[in-house]
Amino acid sequence: MDTISISTEYITLGQFLKVADVIQSGGMAKWFLAEHEVYINNELDVRRGRKLRAGDVVEIPQIGKFLIK
Predict the structure, then answer these.
(1) What pLDDT, on a 0 to 100 scale, did the predictor assign at position 52?
(2) Could you list the residue range(s) of the whole structural domain that residue 24 is in?
(3) How many domains in the chain?
(4) Do 21 and 4 contact (CB within 8 A), yes or no?
């Protein structure tokens, strides 16, 4: 499991995808979420504005599992 550190209260799912190097630009988030399943704390979520906070676990099948810290 990879760890993604944030210095703010939260990060959006779209921002997370870019920080974790899953996508190259923020504009790709909508496309990526339409094509791939993303689980946050074991629940499917496709909202790119979803707020991720420290302790949340993001799992993207075929790509990896990430812990927000």
Answers:
(1) 97
(2) 2-68
(3) 1
(4) no
SS3 label, residue 12? strand
Please, which pLDDT band fits residue 67 given cuts at 50, 70 and 90?
Answer: very high
**Comparing C-alpha atoms, which of 38, 62, 63 is closest to residue 50?**
38
Domain CATH for 48:
3.10.290.10
Q: Are 52 and 12 in contact (CB under 8 A)?
A: yes
Strand 2-4 versus strand 64-68 pairing type: parallel
pLDDT digits (tens, 9 = 90+) for 10-52: 999 999 999 999 999 878 999 999 999 999 999 999 899 999 9
Give the count of beta carbons closer than 10 Å to the beta carbon of residue 48.
18
Burial, 29: exposed, middle or buried (Cβ in 10 Å; 0-12, 13-18, 19+)? buried
